[in-house]
Amino acid sequence: MASTADRTSARRPGGRTARVRAQILAATVELVARDGIAGFRYEEVAELAGVHKTSVYRNWPDREELVVEALLQYVDDLGAVADTGELRRDLVDFLMTIAESLGKPTVRALELATQATHDSPAVRRAATRILEGRAAAMRRRVDLAIDRGELPPVDYSLLGEMISGPVHLIVNRGLRPFTRADAERIVDVVLAGIRATTPHT
């Protein structure tokens, strides 16, 4: 039975229990990114996190729950679309966030999770919800731009794909760093194309 001190620690924000949980979640993301959903083991999670494996089993008896929580814990790595009032700047910042996130285990783990149709449907559903959340953020920002007259009516998903596609291509090839100048050129070309090809009413 857990002692009073253990239960107090579990409730104390920033206490030892919180640190252990953070270590386990970080290790889970790293291992899923390396080995996939089916490949990671609790023993490896514990070893990488520097904790006893009972700490993993006790907090997450279900491996799918562990992976889901680990992905949700690091969802900020995926980036969001800010609203500074300047669409070009917001989209450029968004592309820089994407470029930085592509080197993190979270994104690789998320990609593998969305492909885990047979191994872990619960994890795949969670990963899909995360990606849909980012798409919703893009939609809100594009809708604001349209309302403010910054953009003509446009499909937000198409806009997102057009600006983010080149980032993935450049970063994944690894031939050169992705720079802010790259992000600015991509955004300028896409926005100019949208404005030039949208019929005026």
Multimeric organization: single chain
Which term fits the overall shape? elongated
Q: Structural class given helices, strands, pairing?
A: mainly alpha
CATH topology of the largest domain: Tetracycline Repressor, domain 2
Give the count of helical stretches.
10
Q: Into which percentage range does the β-strand content fall?
A: under 5%
Number of E-state strands: 0
Order of helices and strands: HHHHHHHHHH
| Model regions low in confidence, pLDDT < 50 over at least 5 residues | 1-14
Look at the structure and give the CATH class of the largest domain. Answer: Mainly Alpha
Largest sheet: none
Helix coverage percent = over 70%
Radius of gyration: 20 Å
Note the gap between the termini: 72 Å
- Average of per-residue pLDDT values: 82
What's the CATH H-level superfamily name of the largest domain? Tetracycline Repressor, domain 2
Question: How do the strands and helices of this protein lay out in sequence?
Answer:
Blueprint: H1 4-11, H2 16-35, H3 42-49, H4 53-59, H5 63-73, H6 87-101, H7 105-114, H8 121-148, H9 156-173, H10 180-197
Protein name: TetR/AcrR family transcriptional regulator
DNA-binding region: 41-60
Pfam family, one: TetR_N
